[in-house]
Write a structure and sequence with these properties.
single chain; 76% helix; mainly alpha; two-stranded antiparallel sheet
């Protein structure tokens, strides 16, 4: 068996195959990250609508607050589903581009942080009885959203 010389046409083909294999692996990672982002986005949607329909909550996203003002939970659900489809679907479509993996990891990290926030919020919500009473008895604070559907 003959060793390939560096820079020979055959070694170029071999290295091209390695790049193509690396690109395929990166594309698979992006596809998996897109699925994870969609699942975490749906979990955020479920938690948001659940809290808005029960105790109410402070919505820090001004666009989401506007969607509730415009069309209650239906508009909010459509908006969040649209943003989930746009972000995950858009990244999936460009998954073979170099920056797609960076964007997918970044988006996944943000949604993992949001999920950690929801876990913390759920753990401490029972301790906020005084705050819930104050909100119920007084004027609605800015940013507080409650769905009475």
């Amino acid at each position: 068996m003959t060793a390939l010389a560096i820079g020979s046409p055959v070694s170029g083909v071999a290295s091209f195959g390695a790049v193509a294999a690396g690109t395929a692996r990166a594309a698979r990672r992006v596809a998996v990250l897109c699925i994870i982002m969609a699942i975490l986005g749906l979990a955020d949607l479920v938690m948001t609508v659940t809290y808005m329909k029960t105790t109410g909550m402070f919505e820090v996203n001004p666009i989401a607050r506007y969607m509730v003002d415009v069309g209650q939970s239906r508009q909010l659900i459509l908006f969040k589903l649209f943003t989930i489809a746009l972000s995950s679907g858009g990244l999936f479509l460009v998954r073979r581009h170099r920056l797609a993996e960076v964007a997918a990891w970044s988006g996944t990290a943000l949604l993992v942080a949001l999920t950690a926030h929801w876990i913390h919020y759920n753990q401490h919500a029972p301790e906020m009885t005084a705050e819930w009473v104050a909100i119920a008895m007084g004027p609605t604070p800015p940013g507080f959203v409650s769905l009475g559907e």
